Amino acid sequence: MTASTLEHLTESYCDLLWNLDPVAATAAGVSRYDDRLGLYAEDDVRRYMAAFKSLGSSLEECDVESLEDEIDRTALLGQLRTTVHRFESEEPHVRNPTFWVSHVLEGLHLLLVSTATPLEARALAVAGRVRQIPSFLDAARGTLRDCPDVFVRTAMEMTAHGLMLIDEVERSLAPDGDTDFAGACAAARGALTDFATGLESGEDTDGSFAIGEDAFDFRLHFQHALRATAPELWRFGMALMESTEAELAELARRIDPAVPWQDLVSRLRDDHPAGDLLVGAYASQMDRARRFVEERQLVPIPAGGLEVVATPEFLRPLIPFAAYQPPGAFAESRTGWFYVTPPPEGASVATSERLLRDHCVFELPATALHEGYPGHHLQFLTAHAQPRLVRKVISSAATVEGWALYCEEMMGEEGFYASLEERLFQKLALLWRACRVVLDVGLHTRGMRFEEAVDLLVDRVQFARWNAEAEVRRYCAEPVYQLCYAAGRRELLELRDAYRTACGADYTVRGFHERVLQYGGLPVSLIRWGLELDE
Question: Quick one: average pLDDT of 433-444?
Fold first, then answer.
């Protein structure tokens, strides 16, 4: 298989994916699908899965000319197999109404916030999507069955956010001369409301959200190219929780020997920016992290800005704290956006204080470097600049999230954190990611109940219960994602050790980072293969 053949097959994969999921194309910065929603009725899914399988067969039958081509082919095959397995075995389009509602919400919000596409083009595109919402949700009703209660409750909450998005679309993106656009928005609102009513009145089901150990291990192997299995990762997560709690206890002892680390964290959360200074505080920390990376020459910084802004009002129900949105892989603009949600205007002092405690000044530095430099923003920009198409469009969360969590540790090694308090909150973030490993494996392979998972976050990571419940609902719906932070960090630290040994006196941390990032977000084991460090 020549490089051009691989490129052609990758283009075929993108075309198939974006026809099945036009919202993914919008996220990638490809605008020709912007006026459409996805095709997830069972007959449509069967047709697309057959096409994905045929494409996989073509990939398998071709010879390759180089190691780099074999790495890219392996990554693409893993993605194809994961996609087919997800729809044929896990069936999110059949079992999870949030799958459908979130597709609508994402399809609208991406067009609302886009700055890369002209306003007139976005208005025409969003009109197409709005008009498809009633038929899209009709297809959902004809497809969904035996939905677990946790998915139903989440979908019902999300429909209220969808109504707000449609209101904003009608205000901000009405196409010129489209006299029926208001009526189309009203029909879309009615369809969402009817969909939620149908969920509320539906029969209770005993359906489980867990995908089971076989499906879990399949994802580990093909989606993330991890050798570990669910039982090993359970043990890893438990051990990481224990060791991180010990580190937290030691750091707390050095800060204030008189109080346990849990009480110290609670006390330190009283120190946070005022609501009107919150965006500026994050922007300052983003700039601080970028300067540190640049001054220490830890990794090349690609072109592309990062704007830190207050979350638009219509997105605040979906982004209660903060969130990063990368530029699309094919978008002309290289600017990423970091949204920060301040307390709502008119909120009581008690409500504002409760919300601001999650933006503690000692927590902001690790968050800033995780999301910005040298974390997600830098990695996405570098991946998007790669000449190989596979590395622009294929990624493993174990590499993407693992890289950002690895950066939290690496920046500490390089002297970024200015105080023991900042280091304390960096370790608290690591404890949260260790708990995620246990919860991901436990919920999907070990019979862990929803309430048990909530209690673990409340008791071990000091989450507020309402926040823990929202987190666990997401964990139930996104198997083999939450473990990726800590598991990916472990993979990268082990790869760095192997690279250092191989380089000897020529090792530099910048050199390691440059070699890793040239593979974009491909699984770490494939990066190891490319560095000729395969175990």
Answer: 98
| DSSP H or E stretch at residue 339 | strand 336-340
> For 249-294, how does the pLDDT look when each residue is reduced to its tens digit (9 = 90+)?
999 999 999 999 999 999 999 999 999 999 999 999 999 999 999 9
Q: What is the dihedral of CA 194, 474, 21, 214, to 10 degrees?
A: -120
Annotated domain spans of the chain? 3-209, 215-488
Q: Of 361, 358, 365, give the one whose Cα is nearest residue 468.
A: 358
| 278 CB-near residues (< 8 Å, 6+ apart) | 340, 342, 356, 359
| Count of other CB atoms within 10 angstroms of residue 60 | 10
CA-based nearest residue to 181, from 137, 133, 130, 138: 130
Which pTM does this prediction carry?
Answer: 0.96
| pLDDT confidence tier of residue 415, bands split at 50, 70 and 90 | very high
Task: Say how far apart CA 162 and CA 314 lie, in whole Å.
Answer: 10
DSSP summary character for residue 144: -
Q: What are phi and psi of 249, to 5 degrees?
A: -65, -40
N residues, the chain: 535
As a whole number of Å, the end-to-end CA separation of the chain is 26
**CB contact at 8 A, 250 and 478:** no
Q: What tens digit of pLDDT does each residue of 343-395 get?
A: 998 899 999 999 999 999 999 999 999 999 999 999 999 999 999 999 999 99
Report CA-CA distances (Å) from 307 to 290, 334, 369, 381.
13, 11, 14, 14
With contact defined as beta carbons under 8 Å apart, do 427 and 242 qualify?
no
- Which of 322-358 are b and which e, b meaning 16 or more Cβ less than 10 Å from the residue's Cβ? bebbbbbbbbeebbbbbbbbbbeeeeeeeebeebbbb
Helices (H), 144-229: 149-172, 181-201, 213-222
Q: How far apart are CA 163 and CA 186, in angstroms?
A: 10
